[in-house]
Amino acid sequence: MARANKSPVTVGQSRLSIEDVVAIAVADRPIGLPKSAAYRRRIIRGAEFLRQALADEDCVYGVNTGYGDNCTTEIPADLVAGLPDNLIRYHGVGTGAPLDAIATRAVLVCRLNSLSLGFSGVRPELLELLAGMLNRDVLPRIPCEGSVGASGDLTPLSYVAATMTGKRRASHGGKIMSSMAALKAARLQPITLAPKEGLALMNGTAVMTGLACLAFDRAAYLSRAASRITAMVSYAIDGNPEHFDEVLFSAKPHVGQQAVAARLRSDLGVKRGASHSRIQDRYSVRCAPHVIGVLEDALTWVRRDLENEVNSANDNPLVDPVSGRILHGGHFYGGHVGFAMDGLKLAVASVADLLDRQMALLVDARYNHGLPANLVGETGRAKALQHGFKALQISCSAWTAEALKLTMPATAFSRSTECHNQDKVSMGTIAARDCLRILELTEQVVAAMLLAASQGVLLRSRLAGASAPGRALRQTVEATERAHGRQTVDRELDVIIEACVRRLRAKQVPVAG
Q1: What are the pLDDT digits (tens) for 187-206?
Q2: Which long-range contacts (CB under 8 A, 24 or more apart) does 167-173 make?
Q3: Are 183 and 372 in contact (CB under 8 A)?
């Protein structure tokens, strides 16, 4: 793998960042556990405390009791060992498409980091197997549907626990096979779970958090892409650069908004006091910093909450590895992740809406100030046949409408489940999945806008009296042309849009700094 020569990200000794999670998820970095004897002793102590509690016949939820509403059911000592396998078995009810490899790796990273903090009462062998699965590419097949986000991501995480015990299906090297075969191919041994370990693996927020980290990473890049595209559109329609004046934005000090305005000034080469024949552009250009800036500012608190969740012990019960106290609580509740994803998806969809409106200005000869209708590039007799970006503008509106439709907050739809034991749940995983779908649709809008805005910049630069576009805009236009060609006559754009989206996901498109 390309990551083989890169230093591992070590869990269990310092906070992981979103960037750490993403780097491991895209197989750019391996993962490791601390090698110190002190760390290993800490992990072992938690597992020993649980073993002692069982020997003393203490009542510990999920260790020698039933689960959820069945917590008052005592499990006979001779049946305790079978409890984890039964937990995994009856949670095998996931539906929907399986998570892709990157998402699955993000889930495993988040679960491993949480368990590695030493509060979950698991053995070192379990942590080592999870790390081995990541480093040797054994990925559980995790259905995306079935979690209400409390008690954590029980159903989807049951597929992680099942793979670790050699059950259900997994992939290795991109090939689907039985989990036992995948482990064997990777030279890993399945584990027999200790009484609490099934619950420790499943009773957490790793699915929603892993997906949320990927969503954050994509949203941050799209914010900068939207800034660059807005600069291209402003140049293409001969917009008024004074809308992004530094003094103007000092009067409304939202940090994200100011950052976007600064990017636009840099991309457009705006000089203080520059004059322009048109006083005001339409809102989708003039107010772009105010729209993209909301996303920029949202990313700050979303980062805070996600990184706190990544670095939390979020199963139940927890074991204090110092005192041995067993603490029953509700850290599996994904409220912060759910709220972060509901907020982020709305901010992202709003940016899609902004870009869709910019597309409408670009293609409309009534509002693009001298560009040909639909950005048709042909100038000869064949021009009469050409329709340019007309159909693509329609598709942009369709993608945007679907994104906006999905902004309904998932967290508002808490349902009482499991005999009213789980009577208030987070819906964090559904919110994260919604956010990723909105990002997918928005990336399609961004791809379309890259093509259209590049065409607009080229057409404007050819007009008499037009100033040359700045270096930053030329860089993006030239990169887009190299990858996808120039549109002089009509062509099918579906494959090109797909290729452009892949470049966006790989962060290969020059965007604002």
Answers
A1: 999 999 999 999 999 999 99
A2: 167/88, 168/92, 168/140, 168/141, 169/140, 169/141, 170/138, 170/139, 170/140, 170/141, 171/101, 171/137, 171/138, 171/139, 171/141, 172/136, 172/137, 172/138, 172/139, 173/137
A3: no
Q: How many angstroms separate the CA atoms of 402 and 441, rounded?
A: 8
**Which CATH number is associated with domain 2-204?**
1.10.275.10
Q: Is 76 exposed, middle or buried (0-12, 13-18, 19+ CB in 10 A)?
A: exposed
Tell whether the torsion through CA atoms of 447, 451, 457 and 460 is positive or negative: negative
Q: Which CATH superfamily is domain 212-317+330-447 in?
A: Fumarase/aspartase (Central domain) (1.20.200.10)
User: How far is 125 from 191, CA to CA, in rounded Å?
Assistant: 8
How far CA 391 is from CA of 372, 396, 491, 500, in Å, comes to: 15, 9, 11, 17
The per-residue pLDDT for range 339-388, each reduced to its tens digit, is: 999 999 999 999 999 999 999 999 999 999 999 999 999 988 889 999 99
Nearest-angstrom CA–CA distance, 292 and 358: 13
> Residue 481 and residue 455: Cα distance in Å, rounded?
9
d(CA 217, CA 238): 32
Cα gap 197→180, rounded to integer Å: 19
**From CA 482, how far away is CA 459, in angstroms rounded?**
17
List residues with catalytic annotation: 61
Each domain of the chain, given as residue ranges in start order, spans 2-204, 212-317+330-447
Task: Confirm whether pTM is higher than 0.85.
Answer: yes
